[in-house]
Design goal:
The structure is a homodimer of 232-residue chains. Chain A is an all-alpha fold and 232 residues long. The first copy, chain A, has helices at residues 19-42, 49-56, 60-67, 70-94, 100-116, 123-131, 137-162, 172-192, 198-213, 216-231. Chain A has a domain at 80-231: Tetracycline Repressor, domain 2 (Orthogonal Bundle), CATH 1.10.357.10. Residues 7-13 of chain A have low confidence and may be disordered. Chains A, B: Residues 48-67 bind DNA.
Amino acid sequence: MPTVFPPPTPARDTAAPPRSLQKGQQTRSAILEAALGLASHMGLEGLSIGALAELMGMSKSGVFAHFGSREELQISVVREYHAKFEEEVFYPAMAEPRGLPRLAGLFERWVRRVAVEIDSGCIYISGAVEFDDRPGPVRDALAGMVQTWQDALARAIDLAVAEGHLRPDTEAAQLLFEVHGLILALHHDARFLRNPDSIARARRAFDRVIAAHATEAGQQALLQRAAGASAR
Amino acid sequence: MPTVFPPPTPARDTAAPPRSLQKGQQTRSAILEAALGLASHMGLEGLSIGALAELMGMSKSGVFAHFGSREELQISVVREYHAKFEEEVFYPAMAEPRGLPRLAGLFERWVRRVAVEIDSGCIYISGAVEFDDRPGPVRDALAGMVQTWQDALARAIDLAVAEGHLRPDTEAAQLLFEVHGLILALHHDARFLRNPDSIARARRAFDRVIAAHATEAGQQALLQRAAGASAR
């Protein structure tokens, strides 16, 4: 199955490394996990090697040895977030039939990730606000990941057009802009205003936006998906 | 003309204070202006009395004397931002005829403020992301201002229904959610992805969302507004 996401990082593919290296990688993973939690609350700019060392019960130099610099730590957190996002949102949706069912699957998993998992706030969204004015490698890493995800969505929209589920005059970039706006509004209202209606609002708006572009065949495909979901 | 925004702070209304007090207020205003610029780049959490003192060529204690605490400074910046937002977006739009022309005026000025004035990033949007996980008086001040603005928009939508410009079954909260999403997507794409198409995308999406809810009379009112704008 073709994917527009870059292949997994080599670390996930290679054969088991020697034990000492394995131990080092486990520590690195544990630090990264803690850093991801910290960044989702405090922002990527809120990440400090000192705070992280305290959280891990390690020395600053111990943490530093694994990442070399605060910037490298921030970039590693962005990559880790991206890998989790792929696992939770992207890959499962790829198992759905191409066309509107897959697009709906991507949106639904994205909604759940952003709204339900309140504790792990979206680093894509908070990072975009933190780094819109700050050029440099962290911003580049973040923008690259966001662009990869947007390209994947645009491709899912194009496939839905190719399948005959969306009208041929559907402009992928415009539809993507509008769907992304619903996710951003959901993130804002659910996390900042603590409005419990926002998940339902996002879903209703998505259905309306899609209905405005869907063909008869597309509506049938969505109905079949919904019937399958309720039968499961 | 009724407004749902709170009345201006008394400082703007009272008679001229004695000269020494006036001088103090001028200094406070100058500090606040600098703080607003700093916060729009670095975020409200990036505001420090030290950085501000350096920027103003003042001592830390000199800055401190005007605000008392970093938190009070942050809240003052939020209030200042809100006052400017009212002046640029809210009050001019209130001069337009109630109904869809006014709603379109609010949206258009909001778009310009968010997208064109790239240098003064939206503190409502960046603040929401910074403070979604941080309870306290700064978050409360920010959420209060955002809610005030959302209430004003919801009222403009309700008035457009009352004028017969939007269909009677239009749900203000849902339409508001969708329109707000367009602004958030615009902010994201214009400021973070540096995509020059995003203003046009936001306008096109707004026209489409409104068209889906507008009555014949509403469409006429919008055409008249557009004709008036091109004649000016």
